Amino acid sequence: DTGVSQDPRHKITKRGQNVTFRCDPISEHNRLYWYRQTLGQGPEFLTYFQNEAQLEKSRLLSDRFSAERPKGSFSTLEIQRTEQGDSAMYLCASSFLQTETGELFFGEGSRLTVL
Amino acid sequence: EDQVTQSPEALRLQEGESSSLNCSYTVSGLRGLFWYRQDPGKGPEFLFTLYSAGEEKEKERLKATLTKKESFLHITAPKPEDSATYLCAVQEGTYNTDKLIFGTGTRLQVFP
Fold it and tell me: What is the pLDDT of residues A21-35, one digit of tens each?
């Protein structure tokens, strides 16, 4: 399967714990995005990489959130000291540099529940 | 502030009953408007890109159109498999940004 892969698909954690999500983009795609989606809402932009460089970061992304994309391949999104408000679906998407930048291929998401 | 509003929030149609979904937007210089489909528990799936007023795109029973302030997604003779949430997103063009601003979506249910 050559789609965007996210792991884990579901994570339940207690408030205050750290969690990390992994995203493996489509292999030839050099752009990678993280979005967050809560129930009944559209996806909300978090951050964006081109190869290994983090080019854009939302003001919504507090200091507890950090994302990396070492070597321009897979990416991780870490949330430290989780809060109940962090409960959401975390979506990863990728695209090829030469295509229209709004044409994203999304993974199936990682659902986070903070108790 | 850039904003995307979709209506209606939910739409129930009988199979074969055509209708339209609306996406109105406020953005500083539109770079592109995008339609996505999202099935429950899945990530969004890209449908169309529209760049300028008057542009139209078609795919099977779906047709997207764009004016200077809104976009419509027309669904002709829908089938139950068209049931999904349809998301509209815009990308603004005056700043160096690649982020998409999504609306809250229209949840479509098509009954046989």
Answer: 999 999 888 899 999
